[in-house]
Amino acid sequence: MIIRLLNLIQNKIDIFAFLDARMNAKQVERISKALGDPYRLRIIEAIKNQDGWLQCGSVLDMLNLAQSTVSHHIKQLTDADLLIVEKDGRNARYQINKEVFAEYIKYLTSF
């Protein structure tokens, strides 16, 4: 019983060590909140289905929302480091940040 409890405690310590080494709690929270919105999930899905980059105008057309609302959703995703943004003058295009997604998935699968 004591050994099982010690193993459980060690497992939790390992999880938090992983969290500190790869992602801090604030990053996990920010990513989780960003992915908690259906419009943001649609944006991520559209970018994933695109080979390479997705133009900002395509996101606007896809969602049929006001430009300011789409900007808010994009900002949440970029603040969570889920998207890589490349600007060209007034235009922007987006790509999924696969490294951050991979770290987030590793963190979640540790449970």
Q: Which strand order do you get reading across the main beta sheet?
A: 1-3-2
Main sheet attributes: strand count, strand direction, barrel closure:
3 strands, antiparallel
Give Rg in angstroms. 18 Å
Order of helices and strands: HHHEHHEEH
What structural class do you assign from the helix and strand content?
alpha+beta
Number of helices: 6
List the domain count as a whole number: 1
Total DSSP E strands:
3
Task: Describe, in plain words, how this protein is organized in 3D.
By secondary structure, this protein is an alpha+beta fold. It has helices at residues 2-22, 25-34, 38-49, 56-63, 67-79, 98-109, and strands spanning 54-55, 83-88, 91-96. The chain contains six helices and three strands, in the order αααβααββα. The model has no long low-confidence stretch (mean pLDDT 82). A three-stranded antiparallel sheet has the order 1-3-2. The protein is elongated and about 60 Å long. The chain has one domain: Orthogonal Bundle (Arc Repressor Mutant, subunit A), CATH 1.10.10.10.
Keywords:
111 residues; alpha+beta; 3-stranded antiparallel sheet
How would you briefly describe this protein structure?
This protein is of the alpha+beta class and 111 residues long. The protein has helices spanning 2-22, 25-34, 38-49, 56-63, 67-79, 98-109, and strands at residues 54-55, 83-88, 91-96. Helix 2 runs antiparallel to helix 5 (67-79).
